Amino acid sequence: MCGIIAYTGHRPATPIIIEGLKRLEYRGYDSAGIAFCLQNKLSVIKTEGKLSNLEQKLNSQEVLLNTSGIGHTRWATHGLPTTQNAHPHLSQNGRFALVHNGIIENFKELKKDLISKGITFTSDTDTEVLVQLIAYYVDKGNSILQAIQKSLNQVKGSYAFALIECSQPQTIWAGRCSSPLILGKGQGENFIASDIPAFLPYTKEVIFLEDYEIAEITPSQIKLFSLSHLTPIARETVLIHWDIQAAQKEGYKHFMLKEIFEQPQVIENCLRGRIDASKQTIIIPELNDIPIPSRLKIVACGTSYHAGLWAKYLLEDIAKIPVEVEIASEFRYRESLLDRDSWVMVISQSGETADTLAGLRLAKEKKATVIGLCNVIGSSIARESDITIYTQAGPEISVASTKAMCSQMITLLLLTLFWAKQKQIISQQTINSFIKQLVTLPEQLKNNLTAYHQKAKELTPKYAWAKSFFYLGRGIYYPLALEGALKLKEISYIHAEGYAAGEMKHGPIALIDPEFPTFALAPKDNLLPKIKSNLQEVQARGGKIIALTEPDALLNVDDTWFMPRSQHPFTSFFVLPALQLFAYETAIYLGKDVDQPRNLAKSVTVE
Ligand code: M6R
């Protein structure tokens, strides 16, 4: 998964491309590059490492003369993250430059064939095959569109690409299959990017390119063609309501911190239009006239999977809908026993996660009804689901997902209440009480976040030495314990395991010693006595404990972190930011790169 941006218009293109790449850097950051045409000659400037390395290389006047170009930030899949393997890649004849996101699975066969025809390769990437193949077909007398068509018909795998040719400096070609690519329509300028924030300062009018379509853009025109017959396609533009502030740091040191602090606003956005205060009802228009699932299978990855696990407790308890939750990469490769009566919910912030998308497609093949819970508008999962419910978190830039989970949890809670009401198994009084707590939640959370941040800062110097951590929770807090451990692992690189507290004594407790601390999720509920005894077992082995709890819970542990008192399941919304801030501050304390953790990328569009 990589980030692509392309611009053609009337302004200097390089600063626009670099600015766009900065907003796409979450998709990959091991090397970066740009290409543009000047006086019928292609210039390619690229380098390994972060975008700042590329910026240092771009300090000549020449890079301000071009008014079109393509840029790329890479997350390596084939070939080491070196300058040689960085994109853009050039064709042997120097006529074409191309940037690509995805994986060309049959690149070895294609490369062998091209080498046998006398073409020399300069990188180890799968991408170079595509640009060489297109140039080869053009050399054989095809038009550029025909050459793209012929090449893509030979390619197996996933791709989103942007291509330029030296004699037509203002024209850019693009295509996609299973990797995102969005076109931005401006005034006398047009854009192509992997994600909307890349061009959001310039336009909010977008066109979603579909799989097996090719785009040709100039400053004044956007043309779409079908890959199969190169027939022109008409597509409406869509107006996006995101604002650019949402895609900038706005004074926060990191996107992760900003996104943690945005959660009260995110909750408000999720509730907007979903609660009719006068009638005290939950409104989910997407589900009007749709039958209530008798069972539900939830399929997702990473943090979204944890949100699904969390929702299982609610959907079963409140809406009495049996739920199975499965990791998408497992689900997609086993006998799923689905049929036309099955209901599958896929949850994904990006809407592009390859395993989740494959799970969705498998479910559809089996004729199941698919509900997609997605944040990114127009993403593949959003478009391919039978019913799409947007989670309204706004652009999430930090690789470590925070506000997206909060938005998924709120949406899943609303769905639970909606279905319970439809089934007539919840009283109006209970609905009223939920609505009351939902609408006051943003303010309550906002009032606590600064103190939370302070508490996280206080605790981290005492625990950041640890090589390993346990996160323990019971019931609805067990999925949150998994999420706490994932956050700590991915940004601080401290090994952490989330565990159901009651399961500790079945093996993991053997690991406890004074060097192996535990972060316990211990709200004051009916399971508190149980978790207290689990924590005593930890203490008896010398393990240090931080307990996240509520006033009066009286826990005799090394450190206590008090949340405001709240009711089930709302306590979860006070647990989540504490876990996020603890991981954030630990990573800061250890000097790690929070927004761009090693080896990770924001949306995992490859297997
Ligand atoms: O975009 P998705 O929600 O489908 O992404 C799923 C995971 O890749 C994602 O949640 C990942 O685990 C995050 N890095 C967690 O912070």
What keywords describe this structure?
27 strands, 607 residues, Rossmann fold, binds 5-amino-5-deoxy-1-O-phosphono-D-mannitol, Glutamine Phosphoribosylpyrophosphate, subunit 1, domain 1, seven-stranded antiparallel sheet
Description of the structure:
The chain is of the alpha/beta class and 607 residues long. The chain folds into two domains: 3-246, Glutamine Phosphoribosylpyrophosphate, subunit 1, domain 1, CATH 3.60.20.10; 255-589, Rossmann fold (3-Layer(aba) Sandwich). Helices cover 34% and strands 23% of the residues. It has an eight-stranded antiparallel sheet, with helices on one face. Strands 5-6-7-8-12-13-14 form a seven-stranded antiparallel sheet, with helices on one face. Helix 4 (127-139) crosses helix 5 (144-154). The longest helix is centred in the C-terminal third of the chain and has 36 residues, at 428-463. It is globular and about 75 Å long.
Topology:
Blueprint (H helix, E strand, L loop, with lengths): L2 E6 L4 H12 L6 E8 L2 E8 L2 H7 L10 E7 L14 E2 L5 E9 L2 H10 L10 H13 L4 H11 L2 E9 L6 E6 L4 E4 L4 E4 L11 E4 L4 E5 L4 E5 L5 E2 L4 E2 L15 H7 L1 H9 L3 E2 L4 E2 L13 E5 L1 H16 L5 E5 H4 L11 E6 L5 H12 L3 E6 L5 H5 L2 E4 L12 H20 L5 H36 L4 E6 L3 H16 L2 E6 L17 E5 L5 H13 L4 E5 L9 E4 L9 H18 L18
Parallel strand pairs: 18-19, 18-20, 20-21, 21-22, 23-24, 23-25, 25-26, 26-27
Antiparallel strand pairs: 1-4, 1-10, 2-3, 2-4, 5-6, 6-7, 7-8, 8-12, 9-10, 9-11, 11-15, 12-13, 13-14, 16-17
The structure holds 5-amino-5-deoxy-1-O-phosphono-D-mannitol.
